[in-house]
């Protein structure tokens, strides 16, 4: 059940009305209802994996309880280790088993040995990378005494399976979301309206920006051998906006739906393409995952404190894991590696926390530098996306090599019967809207907000891509 | 909550009104604009127009029959109504539209090959027909039969344009609104292909091993032609030399007694753009060959 489908519209309308009318002021019943709705939502894809969520919920719920009550430090650590091994084990089996086996077989074959191990026909459960990280954060936080263990299995199960953010995040922290299941939710008009605005803006990002860019990206990347430099450049830029529109659009809709149900979940994107260096980009891109890795991997490893060698090691570990989290393919690992290479000089020169303020442009040298830095950062990010989008690392290098060597910058007519440059109008409009609303979560602001809203709804209807019902990219992770 | 629901209802009514408005505008623009595809061209033909030779089929007609060449040599008014991806069901609808327009056809040429095995219709022709779903009874009946989304397309405002955004969406709407001419001259209908067959295109080209017992659309086409006294000739356009035929065309000949097989009539592969499509030079050679072979 996709957010941008009629089925979800009907599903959510029923959930919303039952939740606020039939179950009004009945917090426990509302939580049971959210849990049931979430399982229906997830089961719509593949009901067989509901057992996996239920198992993950039960294991971490009871381990959380045991960790909390355990006074012996060693036993506490063992219980935490069981939780981590269980969750990482689930991920490894469903997501990485075939990858490891294939690479193992290839490695042996490369030195002349045959291996009898064969890969399995494993289906990747949707959202497994997201909910396992969410439940792991719960047991770790309980272990660290940051939160109390949950006393309600229903609340905890609803927290794990909360349908707005179950399949593609944001990866919520138990300390933030779990307590919201215990308090009475009262319908708040302003919260609901802001949620609605986010849903509309998220749909625009997904259906208009991401899906339009996708048609160009697919054509250009699939035929990169016949593309000239301009088309290859545009292909990479369009993919940058496809993945941003797709993923941040999903996150906006998830936050919006949560608000309509009286919940507040964390922001996942903060205009990342206006970043002035890679470190700032990573503070603005997929915030829930970046902060998860920061809090549960990077800081425990020593973070940016310690010897230069330790710092370098930590940065590489964090980016390589982050890359690997995205998928069982060397392209993602290389993508992480490239980000680490871009990030490292900033860390070593102590410039990684240089841009903590909101970006602004003034008519002076500093303003000009901001623009130049934004362009450079965007260009660096775009090069990493080429690896993210390509099927193999070799293909990504061939793509970049052709871009550098061809040097033909004429507007190319593509097999989709459109010129390569056409989508640039839409992307430029999107950049302008994002720029003028860069300090806010959506562009529906000021006294003309109703006009802006009407215009965006009009664009969703008229310019939206409905012919190909495309999944959200991050569902595959 | 009441305020939120009230605003939601107002918004929903606004969106539905907008959808009806857009549907009305798009339909009117497509119905009244300069033709940008072959379905529109047929619908814009004059009532009772005389066309001597009409060619129907898929891209293997569209890219192979040089109407102008035939017209120049024979002096007969010729039109190529071949459409990319068209199947026999689409040819059926084109013929019905021509009959509805009382177009006088002296000879009708229908290209049949592996499309005999397809009882489905083409997405391209189906989407080209959608703007006329409510105004043209032939198209309405055709879509009722072939379109699994018929009811949504017919009753939900703007659904047909949104769902077919690639062919009927905003971009095409604007092109139609400003009467932007298509690159194809529909009075001729021939679309040339350039370049020569690539070595890699040879591999794997083959015709099906089995053939359908009968094709419902072809039967309908046949009876339509008989009813309207149209002289119909079924033929197969050329394939490249490396095509594995699997005796398919022999089987087809058994089903269509007046079938003319030109599949191996062009021996030089340099006249092909790919194994199933002639290039511009190949099309000119084939058109002349047709004139001679069929005594046009």
Question: What characteristics describe this protein?
Answer:
heterodimer, A: 477 residues, mainly alpha, 66% helix, B: 296 residues, alpha/beta, Rossmann fold, 5-stranded parallel sheet, two-stranded antiparallel sheet
Describe this structure in words.
- The complex is a heterodimer of chains A (477) and B (296).
- Chain A is mainly α.
- Chain A has helices at 6-22, 27-46, 50-69, 73-110, 128-143, 153-161, 174-177, 189-222, 229-260, 278-284, 287-301, 308-326, 330-348, 365-389, 393-406, 424-436, 449-463.
- Chain A starts with 5 loop residues before the first helix and ends in a 14-residue tail after the last helix.
- Chain A contains 17 helices and no strands.
- Chain A has two domains: 12-186, no CATH class; 191-276 and 355-476, no CATH class.
- In chain A, helix 3 crosses helix 4 and helix 11 packs antiparallel against helix 12 (308-326).
- Chain B has 296 residues and is an alpha/beta fold.
- Chain B has one domain (2-293): 3-Layer(aba) Sandwich (Rossmann fold), CATH 3.40.50.
- Chain B is built from 14 helices and seven strands.
- In chain B, the strands form two sheets. A five-stranded parallel β-sheet of chain B has the order 2-1-3-4-5. A two-stranded antiparallel ribbon of chain B has the order 6-7.
- In chain B, helix 4 (67-74) packs parallel to helix 14 and helix 5 packs parallel to helix 12.
- The longest helix of chain B is centred in the N-terminal third of the chain and has 31 residues, at 2-32.
- Chain B starts with a helix and ends with a helix.
- The model of chain B has no long low-confidence stretch (mean pLDDT 90).
- The chains are: A mainly alpha (477), B alpha/beta (296).
- At the A-B interface, helix 8 and helix 17 of A face helix 1 of B.
């Amino acid at each position: 059940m996709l957010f941008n489908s009629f089925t979800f519209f009907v599903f959510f309308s029923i959930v919303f009305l039952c939740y606020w009318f039939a179950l009004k002021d009945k917090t426990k019943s509302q939580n049971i209802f959210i849990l049931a709705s979430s399982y229906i939502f997830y089961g719509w894809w593949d009901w067989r994996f509901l057992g996996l969520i239920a198992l993950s919920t039960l294991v971490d719920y009871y381990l959380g309880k045991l960790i909390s009550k355990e006074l012996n430090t060693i036993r506490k650590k063992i219980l935490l280790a069981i939780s981590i091994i269980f969750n990482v084990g689930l991920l490894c089996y469903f997501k990485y088993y075939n990858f490891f086996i294939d690479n193992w077989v290839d490695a042996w074959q490369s030195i002349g040995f045959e291996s009898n191990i064969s890969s399995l026909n494993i289906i990747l459960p949707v959202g497994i990378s997201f909910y396992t990280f969410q439940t792991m954060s719960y047991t770790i936080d309980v272990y660290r005494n940051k939160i109390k263990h949950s006393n309600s299995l229903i609340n905890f199960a609803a927290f794990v399976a909360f349908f707005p953010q179950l399949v593609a995040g944001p990866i919520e922290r138990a300390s933030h979301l779990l307590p919201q299941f215990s308090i009475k939710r009262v319908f708040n008009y302003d919260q609901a309206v802001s949620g609605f605005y986010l849903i509309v803006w998220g749909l625009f990002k997904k259906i208009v920006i991401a899906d339009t860019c996708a048609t160009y990206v697919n054509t250009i990347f699939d035929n990169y051998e016949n593309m000239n430099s301009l088309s290859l450049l545009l292909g990479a830029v369009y993919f940058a906006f496809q993945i941003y529109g797709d993923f941040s659009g999903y996150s906006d809709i998830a936050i919006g739906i949560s608000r309509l149900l009286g919940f507040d979940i964390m922001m996942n994107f903060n205009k990342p393409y206006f970043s002035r260096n890679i470190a700032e980009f990573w503070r603005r891109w997929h915030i829930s995952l970046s902060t998860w890795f920061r809090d549960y991997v990077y800081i425990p490893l020593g973070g940016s404190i310690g010897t230069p060698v330790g710092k370098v090691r930590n940065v590489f570990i964090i980016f390589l894991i982050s890359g690997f989290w995205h998928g069982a393919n060397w392209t993602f690992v290389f993508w992480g590696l490239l980000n680490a290479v871009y990030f490292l000089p900033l860390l070593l020169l102590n410039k990684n926390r240089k841009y903590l303020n909101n970006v602004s442009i003034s008519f002076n040298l500093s303003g000009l530098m901001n623009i130049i830095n934004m362009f450079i950062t965007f260009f660096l990010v775009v090069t990493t996306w080429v690896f993210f989008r390509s099927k193999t690392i070799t293909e990504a290098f061939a793509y970049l090599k052709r871009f550098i060597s061809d040097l033909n910058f004429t507007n190319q007519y593509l097999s989709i019967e459109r010129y390569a440059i056409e989508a640039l109008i839409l992307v430029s409009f999107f950049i302008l809207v994002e720029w003028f609303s860069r300090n806010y979560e959506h562009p529906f602001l000021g006294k003309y907000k109703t006009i802006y809203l009407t215009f965006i709804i009009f664009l969703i209807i008229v310019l939206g891509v409905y012919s190909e019902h495309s999944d959200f990219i991050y569902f595959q992770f | 909550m009441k305020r939120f629901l009230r605003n939601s209802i107002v918004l929903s009514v606004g969106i539905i009104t907008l959808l009806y408005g857009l549907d009305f505008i798009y339909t009117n623009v497509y119905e009244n604009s300069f033709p940008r595809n072959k379905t529109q061209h047929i619908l814009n033909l004059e009532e009772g127009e005389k066309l001597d030779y009409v060619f129907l089929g898929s891209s293997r007609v569209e890219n192979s029959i040089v109407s102008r060449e035939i017209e120049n040599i024979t002096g007969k008014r010729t039109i190529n109504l071949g459409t990319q991806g068209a199947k026999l069901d689409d040819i059926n609808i084109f013929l019905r539209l021509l009959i509805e327009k009382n177009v006088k056809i002296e000879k009708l040429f229908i290209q049949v090959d592996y499309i005999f095995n397809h009882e489905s219709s083409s997405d391209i022709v189906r989407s080209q027909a959608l703007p006329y779903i409510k105004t043209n009874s032939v198209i309405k009946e055709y879509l009722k039969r072939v379109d699994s989304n018929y009811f949504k397309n017919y009753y939900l405002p703007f659904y047909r344009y949104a769902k077919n955004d690639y062919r009927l969406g905003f971009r095409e709407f604007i092109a139609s609104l400003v009467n932007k001419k298509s690159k194809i001259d529909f009075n001729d209908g021939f679309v040339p292909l350039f370049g020569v067959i690539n070595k890699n295109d040879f591999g794997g080209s083959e015709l099906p091993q089995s053939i359908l017992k009968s094709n419902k659309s072809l039967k309908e086409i046949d009876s339509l032609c008989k009813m309207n006294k149209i002289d119909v000739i079924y033929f197969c356009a050329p394939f490249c030399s490396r095509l594995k035929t699997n005796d398919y065309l022999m089987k087809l000949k058994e089903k269509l007694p007046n079938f003319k097989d030109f599949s191996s009539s062009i021996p030089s592969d340099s006249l092909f753009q790919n194994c199933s499509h002639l290039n511009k030079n190949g099309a000119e050679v084939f058109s002349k060959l047709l004139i001679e072979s069929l005594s046009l």
